[in-house]
């Protein structure tokens, strides 16, 4: 299917405004209007064909495509919320997503599930929403539950597969080199798969991401048979209001035809997710019907159906529930300044509330800092920046401003304290 036919298949795709937010109390339009706008935005993002988002260090997932995660509701109602990290993701520090675009298609999603959530592209998320960091990307299912770290080396049945370490660390820069690793002898082919490092600051990450997409298409029917995988840094639990969730989705039963009989309809789960999200936040996130491609020449389809929605709203409804014991704001302001000619320092003015928080809110405070400064070109070395931030939070609570600097090395907390938080 050529590009023009693909756009006709998606429906009328209008250019959408970055940062399209979902319905919340006081919205000037109804949640149904927001739902229709959301599906238009998803179609627009899916059809985008950009190879970067401004330069070679900004991969396409930052501004285009659709980042989706399949979920499964708990057997015990109320045990957890599907938008919070799973216990496995919380332990490992990495959470798995898939990426779809007109040039990134597959027929099956992880575990055969048929509902989940969709996140905004990072650079197009609404104001006040969290910045999610993509660590790495795999052309096929990354089998990350067998890797020694998220995006690390595969260890399966006691055997270490050294070719599974990040592609760039092995000098993999061409399709032939990637295929040479993929077809290495192994009990299962994915055990040798290398993924591409997508962390902020990695040279030519946009080019490597496009190579990842290219490999899935080169694999043809094999590539189409299963999802790709992007690993995102796990976020703290309890971030429902500020997570950049664009939509809940479900897939209709029996589409495509290879799905096994008896798979439950994901719409029921999506409706419960929508209801719980509104109860927790006051925000109505629309439910979108996501129809996967029926064959290798077909495309994903996005539809907003009024009858699918369990929650609708207009203006003037009850505001969201307050979250007890948390600061309404953690960071008052941030400002970059140049030092030593070519190095940067970030001045942070914490809120009065932040100066009183306990350790259980450290992640929330740092996430807000990432929201404010993490997408700036000066930001890098996130682990060190977090160490400096926590050091200042625990030892210099009363200082008017805190300064953290990306050029400083990552050290232990004890070493940071000994160096007055400037290791």
List keywords for this structure.
9-stranded mixed β-sheet, 2 domains, alpha+beta, single chain, 3-stranded antiparallel β-sheet, 423 residues, 10 helices
| H/E element sequence | HHEHEEEEEHEHHEEHEEEEHHEH
Class from helix and strand fractions: alpha+beta
Count the strands? 14
Sheet having the most strands: 9 strands, mixed
Radius of gyration, in Å, reads: 22 Å
From the spread of the alpha carbons, the general shape counts as: globular
Question: Number of helix segments?
Answer: 10
Q: Report the span from N to C terminus.
A: 56 Å
What do these coordinates show?
It is a single chain. This protein is α+β, with helices and mostly antiparallel strands and 423 residues long. The protein folds into 2 domains: 306 residues, no CATH class; 88 residues, no CATH class. The protein contains 10 helices and 14 strands. The strands form 3 sheets. Strands 7-4-8-2-1-3-9-10-11 form a 9-stranded mixed beta sheet, sandwiched between helices. It has a 3-stranded antiparallel beta sheet with strand order 12-13-14. A hairpin with a 2-residue loop joins strand 5 and strand 6. The longest helix is centred in the N-terminal third of the chain and has 17 residues. The protein is globular, with a radius of gyration of 22 Å. The termini are far apart. The N terminus is likely disordered.
